[in-house]
Amino acid sequence: MVSFKGKPRAVAPTPGPILSGGVIPLDGPAMQRSLSRVLVLDDAGLFRMLEGSFVRRLGCEIVRAQDGPDVVRKASARAPHLILLDGHKPELDGPGCVRALKADPALRSIPVLVVTTIDDVPGCCAAGADAALARPLTSGALELALSSLGSVAQRRGRRRAGRGWAQLTASHGMRRGRLKDISPSGLFLALQEPIPVASPVEIGLRLPGPAGDRAVKARGVVVRQVPPDPDSHLIPGIGVRFVEIDPADERRIDAYVNATVVDAADGSGGVATDLHP
Fold it and tell me: What is the DSSP string of 179-210?
């Protein structure tokens, strides 16, 4: 469960099992902040979760702090783009640490994400946390919260045009979109009815390779929306940032993007209805 605070002006709906008691702000300072440095309490569990998330794959720097006072000191010294705390850690006063961060004019704009028990979520939010996740974490909840609190709209690395179709599953149901381009960190799908920014999605598609088409699947979050506009040259659709992908599928995408020899049938692709390799 994720809880967000505040009264945003522009919002995107999120499925009930992941979001509770709030909406994701899309026009506040948190969404405009580039996510390249994360300050985390020196907690083995949180550090492992960050290591396994898209944060490490993007090359984001992870700064570790020892306790509450050290969090405040390093936030002042290192200017992180997001702070991740374990609110139920014995040596940390979670709400107190959040209040100290939000009381400092130089630090209060830094998004604070707290992982804690469901009983402590209200207290952390009342102290000023921008979002709180209740244990046990729903699959993908950490990635969704990180994506929402830190701007990840800019895809990094080389990308390659695609021609096939992709199957997309979101809270709005299942759709088919034409793959326009793909990179190891995300893709762009042409859709006549784009999905709102910050919506979590599941993607299934096939990419050509030396051994034939192979299925690729990933979970992601919509970070760009291009609505239909008859006066614009832009293709209607959505940009998706991958937040959860199997390493083997990530390697397939990387091989496709960086391939130097293109087969005559390259780009035929197709919707991956059977997502097994």
Answer: EEEEETTEEEEE-SSPPPTT-EEEEEEEE--T
